Structures are given as C-alpha cells and as structure tokens.
C-alpha cells in the first residue's frame, strides 16, 4: 500500500505527461502481482466496489470526528476523501502494513453495512498519504490527473510493448491482469479468442480551417447520437460505448437483433415519432444510457436503431488492416443480411468538390446531423486519433449573448475559483431567467478575471452559490437547443461553453428567450 | 459579552488597551502601538510611539523605515504604561516575535500574535505564559492541519535535489522568517552546500546572520551562471515561483514551504511539484494543546479559521469568542 500511496501522491503533483508515464512504469516494474494489477485497475478506472461508497467514507469519519468540525474542514479542503485522510485522528504511529491486494479482496466481499468499520480499521493502520490513496481506491474515483490511455501507455512502456497491441487485448481481460503482466515479462500474448470483447474505436480530428481533396477523402454525415460498437461471436452479442463501457442491457432492441458474427461500428439513434427513418434527438438516447433494464414503454416510444459506419471484423476475419474503401464495400455487402428496421447504412455524400460539400453541409436540415465526416479512402482502422486519416467537420456552433446570474466554485484544482456560471436571457415579462450553465471555454486569465468579478459583484449567497449583479454579458456557444422542464425558461442548451466575455455589451442588450426558442430542433 | 467595556477591547482594526491608551498590532496609524512581530499585517507604518522587541524593531527598520518613538523591550522585560504592566515573551514564530503579556488590577491577558510550538533554529522558542484571558491566532485552526515533523520535510527536499542533479530545486518561502528557517533547518540537517537566493531575500538573511543565526554560505542568483545553479537549492519569495524570473534557472523543480501545502489543491493551484509542509504557525494540535496548557478562564480568537477553534472550545467547555480583526492575512505563504 505504501508504494501505491506514494505513486498516487507523486502523480498528483507531477505535471509533465512523460514524467507521469515514467512514475507509473517504475511502479509497475517494481511491484509484485497482484498488487500492481489492482493499482493499474484503479488508475484506469476499472476497480469498482459496489459496497464502498462515498457515504460509507462519511459515515466512518463521523464516528471519529465532530460533525461540525468535519463540515468546516470539508468546506475548506474541497474534497471529502482528502478531508477524511487529513482529519483522521492518528492514535499511534501508523504501521503502514496493509497490502493493496488484501484491501481489494476485502472491499470486494464486504457488505454495505460493514464497509465503514472495515475502512476505519484500515485508516488506523495507514498514514495520511495511505489513507488518501485507500479512500480513492475504495470509492473508485482516483482523479489523479491521468487517463486510462496514459496508464496503458505506462504499462506498455514498462515492459517494452506497443500500446496499441495492449489496447487490443485490454478489454478482454479483467483485473488484476495476471496474464497481461505475464505477457509483459516474456510470456505469451493473452488470447481472448471466443469472447465478445471491445476493440478501441478509431476517432477523428476536427477539421480546423483546412480543406481536403475529395479524391482522397470520402464524406459521410456525422450523426448526433451515441457511437456504438456491436460485437457478435457465436451467439454472444455485446454493445459497447465509445469508452468501452458495456451498454448491452440498455439496448436489447439492438442486441437481440444482430443476426451475424462480426464487429460493427456505427451510431446509435432513436426514431422520432411520425418521422420514420429520421433520427430523433440525442436527449431521448441519454435517458436509456446507463440503465440495466428498459421498460416496454420506452422501447415502444423511442425505438433504437444503428446507422452503420464501418465493419471491423467480418465473421471472424479481421478487416482492420484493410483500407477504408474495401471495408466499406464489405459493409455494404453485409447490410442486406441485417434487419432493416434495426440497422441501416450511413450514406456516403456525393459532392463534386469541397466547396459543394460545404454547401451540402450548411444546407442540412436534419437535427440529427452534427456535421460531416471526412475519411481517407485508404485509411486502415487504427485506434484513437491519427493525424490526416479521419476528420470531423462540424456545423458552426450557435451562439447567444447571455447574462451571468449565479456562480459556484469548481472542484479539484479549481476549488478556489468561481468557475461554474449560470446565465440567463430576458423573457417576455422583462425578467432574466436561467437558460444554461457553463464551466469551460475561457482561458486561465479570463477565469481569474471572472473569479474576481464574482467576488466583487456578489449580491446574495445561497450556500456555495453566489448570486451576482446582473451586469456581465457572456457570449455562449452551444451545439443545439431543446425543450426542457429543468429551467424556468423552458429551454436547455446542449454543450454550452463560454465563447467570449462581452464586457463591452450592456446586459439589457443580451438575447431574449424568444430568440433562443427559434433555434429549437 | 459584558455590559461595561473590559479594559482590553477588540476593534476590527486592532486590540485596544484602554488604561494604557495603546493598541496591539493596529492596522491603521495610532499614537501608541505594541507590536508582536515584523510581518506586514501586524507591523504597519505611521504610529507615533511603538513598543516591540529589539529584533522586531530592527526588522521593521529594514523593511519599512523608522517610527518617531521606538521603545525596545527585550524578552522577559517589563514596562509600566499607565498602570498596565506590559512584558514581551517569545512566540516562536519568527525572529523577535513576541507574545505580549498585560497585567492590570490583578487580571492577566496574553496576546499571542502569531506563534508556533515546535523547534525552530532561527528564533527563540515559544514560552508558556499563564493568564486569565488568552488571545490566540488560528491561522491553521482546522483539524485537517497537522504539520508533519520538520526534519522529514527537509529530508524530502534534500532527496529531491539528489534525484535531480541536472536541474535545481526552487523553494518558495516567505521572505521574513520562513526563508531563514528553511536555510537553518537545512544546515541542521547537515546540508553545507551554498544556498542561492532571490534578491528579495538577501537583506533579511543578512539581518538574521547579524543576530547570530548561522545560515552558512549564501549566494545571490543574480549574476550567477546557469550551469553553476545546477544541483543547487534556490530560495525565492512565493510570488517569484511562476514569474519570468524563474526562467533563468536550470530545469527547476518547484517546491514551496508552507503549512497550506497540507491541502493538495492549494499546492496544485500554485503549480507546486514538491510541497513542503513547513509552517511558522501552530497547527491544530498545537493550538488546542496550548489552550489546554495555558488553562485560561477565557479564549479570544483573533484571526484564521476561528469558527472551528470556537467549536473545539465549546466541545471542551472553555469560554471563547471570535474577534474578527480586519486586515490579517493567511500569511504563511503571503
């Protein structure tokens, strides 16, 4: 536990990506199985113990510390796990004799009721670094500034493997990854043959200002749904979201209707009422994500289908090392074998040149179209984003001038800054009503300015929320607008972010709710 | 609290000692001031007559100039101001820092100023002064603040330097007190290499040396070749860490010596890679232990996280009140 705690602490203070990779790699080489496997699972977000929740941590702390002193401390520190780790009364010198794997085994089998006592017992044996790392591990929320990809890169580097080769088998394995480490140390490559496992998606870069030659690139619509991978081997079918999460149970209407073996890449969409064939909004899909069961009503009201983009594996033949145009031909040949109400083909857009393509893109009316995808005709299917292979060319975002109404402090490294802003527009009665909330899009120096503005213009406080003088206009960019019952204005923005601070503009000239309603899709 | 004003009365800008017509650490100019120590939020300019320890007066003279009437009062010495017996006792915070003891008509009050209990080779150790009313700071008055043993933190600093021979370690440290203490602690740990200083630290280090604090060999960063700075410890005020000034250094690891480094977000916000929890203020355990040791009838809390300390007093059935003085900073990292 001591080495893992030291790693977590060091990662928290290390800025450079290479230095983080080196720290993790050193740890993985120096630590025995199965501890290092559990550490890797924690860093990649795959360690999850259903009995140990944040509430267990709080319950445990309250038994040792005065609740009022805890509350005051939590307010100051800004993170419950860290507060508990720091505030925990040390009775004697901690022994630090806990093994990571032993803690993991105990967390996996403990009951919800027993969890606080188990944790408390461990807390007594650890120093503050150890307590912090253990709570983060137990609650499955490391947040030490590294992505799963970075942890895998570190693993690959530690053992001289190729990270894409690691990624390829990763999703067929489970913690503590004994076969993976054995491979790293010269053993055979783990063989996931015969199981339906996730293959990392190929992703696109945004096409900034450049153009591409349509002789080299094919164009397709970019659909505004959920990217999905459908895997069938034998009679087992699995659906995976972009990050590799298993979403099979949320979409039985897809999983039960894939008749052929293979691995498909597509966009999950739902049909809107009375617009057969057209995709309904993204919101309808969100309601189904993360569910373990789906009601018959939901299946009937928002039936899902997949618009297919690519064929990775045909039967059992891996096509990923073939060029896109060949995979496309194979996909087109495959589609007639699939039920037409569940699967269709994402059409290639025919355009004479790039200028015409731009016109087609701007003229697209379908709400489910986010923009255009450009794929190099000879591109192999490679995981992640590679320069020059695939581009996404989104429609320009919509913008509105809104007025800042409330602000709230951020978390993590923003815990001292007012960085979350609720903004509003004018309604017909001449009142400002909230239309959205944004916490990105500004630079560090703009954040400092905004934080100062909030502190100097506070008119009211509601717990952590400050109401501010309604004087600052924010130009907000967003992808689309929908009806919503959550806001008094009756509308909600998709992916709002602060585009510009309009310190030049008086609040009275901000946009109206009526003007925003015109954007509803 | 009481209907008739006590002979010592707190105001937002300082503590007033009525019979002596004197203010303790006032934040605006007054005719008569008693000053606990030389930090800017306690020692303001513009007073007519001032009572402080000789070391504190030297520090004030170096930083802000002179007052018209300066009265040096050594540790343990006592002066009579209109019937109030005033004496100064070591607070263990920085060189010259004092607790001020006031006695009037049989009642004793101690104002701690800022203080700490743990050993510090750069100043006199805290002295326990019994009293009826104990007026204490609470900068680190939350139970999450428990400063680790200083030698462990110094060992981390030396280990980082050894692990990073092609670069240097840049330590942010408050110019008065913290910088000299870090140097003195390094010397105590047997680190005898020259230590390099940002220009803003030079004069205060010289003043400490004049007062007999051995800081070993110190060299200015200014005018020193980049290659000579490799493998060195460099001290600078915290404001210089992210400043263009630090670009002249060879691949610096940024460290910071402050009690706030106990909280990760505080360290990360400043881009600190090596947090060193070294504080010149009492931590939670020291604050609560000191209140127990002094055993006063009443505790008044001047500044910091007073809410939590009041809560602790309430849980331990000790009478306490908050004074809410203005202008006090969380100075441990300034």
TrEMBL record, chain A:
Instruction: Return one GO MF term.
Output: DNA binding
* ATP-dependent DNA ligase family profile domain ranges (all copies): 297-427
A GO BP term here is: DNA replication
Bilayer-crossing regions: none
As its record notes, the protein acts as a catalyst of:
ATP + (deoxyribonucleotide)n-3'-hydroxyl + 5'-phospho-(deoxyribonucleotide)m = (deoxyribonucleotide)n+m + AMP + diphosphate
Instruction: Write down the Pfam families for this protein, in alphabetical order.
Output: DNA_ligase_A_C (PF04679), DNA_ligase_A_M (PF01068)
- Its EC number is 6.5.1.1
Keywords, comma-separated and alphabetical: ATP-binding, Cell cycle, Cell division, DNA damage, DNA recombination, DNA repair, DNA replication, Ligase, Magnesium, Metal-binding, Nucleotide-binding
> What top-tier enzyme class does this entry carry?
ligase
Name of the protein:
DNA ligase (ATP)
User: Source species, please?
Assistant: Blastomonas natatoria
Q: What is the lineage of its organism?
A: Bacteria, Pseudomonadati, Pseudomonadota, Alphaproteobacteria, Sphingomonadales
Automatic annotation (TrEMBL), chain B:
**Which Gene3D superfamilies does this UniProt record tie to the protein?**
Ribonuclease Z/Hydroxyacylglutathione hydrolase-like
What InterPro entries does the record tag this protein with?
MBL, Metallo-B-lactamas, RibonucZ/Hydroxyglut_hydro, Xnuc_lig_assoc
* One Gene Ontology molecular-function label: RNA endonuclease activity
| Listed SUPFAM superfamilies | Metallo-hydrolase/oxidoreductase
Q: Which domain of life is it from?
A: Bacteria
Show the SMART domains listed in the entry. Lactamase_B
Metallo-beta-lactamase domain segment(s): 11-174
Name of the protein = Putative mRNA 3-end processing factor
